[in-house]
Amino acid sequence: MTVPTLPLDKLRSAFGGRLREQQPMARYTSARIGGSADALLVVNTLAELAEAAQTLWDLGVSFFVLGGGSNVLISDAGVRQVVILNQAAQVRFGEKGSPSVWAESGAGLGAIARQAAAKGLGGLEWAAGIPGTLGGAAVGNAGAHGGDLSTVLDLAEILHHTQGRKEWSVADLAYGYRQSWLKGHPGEAVVLSARLKLAEKPASEIRSQMDTFLAYRRLTQPPGASMGSMFKNPPGESAGRLIEAAGLKGKRIGSAQISPLHANFFLNLGEARATHVYALIQEARQAVSDRAGIELELEIGLVGEW
Q1: Annotated catalytic, 271?
Q2: Any residues with CB less than 8 A from the CB of 82 and at least 6 apart, and which?
Q3: Given 30, 193, 229, 259, which residue is catalytic?
Q4: Which of 163, 229, 261, 263 could cross-link 222 (Cys pair, CB 3.0–4.6 Å)?
Q5: Domain annotation for the chain: domains and CATH numbers
Q6: Is-catalytic flag, 285?
Q7: Average pLDDT of the chain, as a whole number
Q8: What is the pTM of this model?
Q9: Residue 229 catalytic?
């Protein structure tokens, strides 16, 4: 199959020196894995993000937005789309008596949670250790410890490729477990910003709860370079427990390893390639299917050629 090439002349004309060509994606992902992107565009504000997305749609050029680089596996062959690296990270808290926070989609969710805690604003305790951005959390309905983004989201500002820019509610986003309308329709809309509902609480109480969650995370989840949770938990089950029960905890292919601590985390031990991780994904899926009759569904996104 012939892979479409990007119209680099048009992109250079549209974005000038802001366009970066042949960028190794491993430097932008939490797993430190990935081939080169033909073109990468860094955006630093909501306005730049909206302008970049609209321009690419107008040019008919495929793109995807990358935030903190977690929850994604980029192929060794690289990316033939334009990668928009979202660094729009402005955060504003509501006035006294209005417990809320508005943030651009490139802001780190964990950082927002910690800032809220310092102001005596609760509701995001579960998010303290999540490495991704607000935009990524809005797309994937990120969650932990019984909470997720759908429980705190008030409104998200979305730029849709045909409907333009408007605010979407939780109902509009059609949230499910690690799922949303946005995740089910890649390339059709971009998260620009979101407003989250918070609650006034004693800062000491918020910090205590966050410390408990963070301690549990350190105890049960491995440090090091990974994509985060690899598979969604099947209903009433744990993906990590299923993979461990299939005898794959600690399994290695090349420098990629299924974590000996938590089998739903796949690690880059130093020189792992995407093909190594993908081979582990396939082996884990097959082993769990054979042993338990359960088909594991990826939580991460696969980007590039597979």
Answers
A1: no
A2: 6, 11, 37, 38, 39, 40, 41, 56, 61, 62, 63
A3: 229
A4: 261
A5: 8-86 (3.30.43.10), 91-205 (3.30.465.10), 224-303 (3.90.78.10)
A6: no
A7: 95
A8: 0.93
A9: yes
